[in-house]
Amino acid sequence: MARPPKARVPLKQAALERFVEQGVHATGIRDIAKHAGCSEAALYRHWKNKDDLVVSLFTEHLGEVCAILDQAIASGEDLESKVHAASKACYKLYDEQPRVFRFILLVQHELSRTLPTDLRMPQDVVHDLAKEAIKRGEAKGEAMVLAAAVIGIFLETAVFVLYGRLPGPLSRYAVPVAEASLRVLRK
Amino acid sequence: MARPPKARVPLKQAALERFVEQGVHATGIRDIAKHAGCSEAALYRHWKNKDDLVVSLFTEHLGEVCAILDQAIASGEDLESKVHAASKACYKLYDEQPRVFRFILLVQHELSRTLPTDLRMPQDVVHDLAKEAIKRGEAKGEAMVLAAAVIGIFLETAVFVLYGRLPGPLSRYAVPVAEASLRVLRK
Amino acid sequence: MARPPKARVPLKQAALERFVEQGVHATGIRDIAKHAGCSEAALYRHWKNKDDLVVSLFTEHLGEVCAILDQAIASGEDLESKVHAASKACYKLYDEQPRVFRFILLVQHELSRTLPTDLRMPQDVVHDLAKEAIKRGEAKGEAMVLAAAVIGIFLETAVFVLYGRLPGPLSRYAVPVAEASLRVLRK
Amino acid sequence: MARPPKARVPLKQAALERFVEQGVHATGIRDIAKHAGCSEAALYRHWKNKDDLVVSLFTEHLGEVCAILDQAIASGEDLESKVHAASKACYKLYDEQPRVFRFILLVQHELSRTLPTDLRMPQDVVHDLAKEAIKRGEAKGEAMVLAAAVIGIFLETAVFVLYGRLPGPLSRYAVPVAEASLRVLRK
DNA sequence: AATGAATGAGATTTCATTCAT
DNA sequence: AATGAATGAAATCTCATTCAT
User: Where on the phi/psi map is residue D87: left (φ > 0), alpha (ψ -120 to 50), or beta?
Assistant: First the structure.
């Protein structure tokens, strides 16, 4: 019987847009509310405060990325197909929702202190992939070191596109990035 | 021969420490001044404003990194020795001044909009290295894509150490990181 | 014969509890409603607004105290028995519902401006008692001054118990307080 | 060499005045600042926040009262002269600075939770007086119970004057209040 | 009838910066 | 030359109350 919530989704969209456009700290509640077409106070019915909104956005979208990665990896038969599928899926997501990716980049280091330690992150997914590959003899080295390298190749290529060092769309680099990753993983 | 300003160095150290500890936006002038053991107004004798301090810290330290990279690369004969030297030098800097690295990580994305576009960055150094290597037949592929991958491997390994996914010191990974980079560059 | 409102009593209990626990101003409608197990809007069905609730709680409980005092005083034959009965009855109420007393203490000074001036208060009851006693030759002095002293002895002893300066229960002090009051009244 | 503080005293005076006039909660920082003739932010250089200001005002003035009481009590030879001196001194203070007394009344119960437990209060002073008197055979009973009664007589008489039940000035009641107290204290 | 989402107004507080001393 | 008090502007957040469902 209660009034159905109307502001939640617009607030999330507006927040993501403004955060990405101006930076998290530079974006005020007022700005978000105005873009969402509602009052500032409405935000506080759905999140405890601004920080809560930021963290909630971050974990939500990070969860999405993990799910996509998991699915892509599960779809492949061997290491090669898994890595190609993961790279393709992630970069497709990025091209479709570049804001999500930019947001994660923006806040990851700042949130690193406050995030719940048990939150599953893409790093964990890739680490698991590396461990499996090593066990099956498809890769060689220390799993965590390999994971770092693979994530790095993925991320930095995206950053280069993001900042215009490399021309987009990012999907164009899915294959070379997968190949570079495989070169690092294999032996 | 005016006597040298006394507060400049303490202010820079205090600022770096507080920025890294709490985030740039969360750190106020009061806080910095208190940690530097001087007054709030002293800051404005050395920098135009807080932003100026942040940007100046960033470019200064980034310049350091570039210089170290340039020197290391110049010291090597071929691609292999250049990459190994670069990796070693950078990670040594990190182990000696981990705050510098964390600071750069923290602010890079937030500053990306305001930085002067002609500022030479580590990405440029590595890009040049890749271009040279390709020209000399030591590497194969598109220089910018290779640069992204190499930087990514470097950075993310450091991040893994920073956040405790990999045990430090970072120097321990100089060789494997160089080798992974070479595997991506060569052929 | 409309069915009786369900939320009224829980709201009153919750309000009293939260007011006493946190202070009147520090307690919000949300808080009260949550503790009462109903919606925020429900409050407005029973009271015009928050102030109305506060004043209504205050006058209601003050009325109770007056009624108990009146009854006790009427039950006694002479000044001595009246005072003993009043003291006993009041302190019994306090021991049974300490929140009521604390609430009255908390808000009395804050409400002193807004209360209807014709509201009968315990002070009036005791004043009447003193006037009567003087008329009957059982007490001597100015009625209002005596009333102030008697109320003071009553109240402050309760406050001392409330804040742990004196060990409870308050009933234990009914006789000494009555005796002290009588010593002030008589002569 | 620094700018000397100019807003501290006006802020304290304005705060006391507005608190007493409107109640602590009903008085905003803006109101205080306006009456003090300075900006709202100035307050935060001298006190951590509004609560800090309230507590600091309270303890300061309570300390004054304790000092006056101590001095008055020390000036008397026996219980009788001590009580008369205390009553006279306190009520004189009240007549000269009624705001101070009203402020203490207003906030005492609300602050009771947050105050430092080791803060010396008038209650302690009177308790000590009662203990001494009992030891010297000048009074009889339990010291804390007597103290409660004496404080009560003092306070409530002042409250009656404050709210117009008794005509002022309060000093007029110094003698009767002292006499009533002595009747309670003495055997 | 009853909910709880939404709101406008206003609260407190923080900030980078300026300024009087 | 150097301080730290003062400030205007803006930030985040809370509040009692209303309103759509």
Answer: alpha
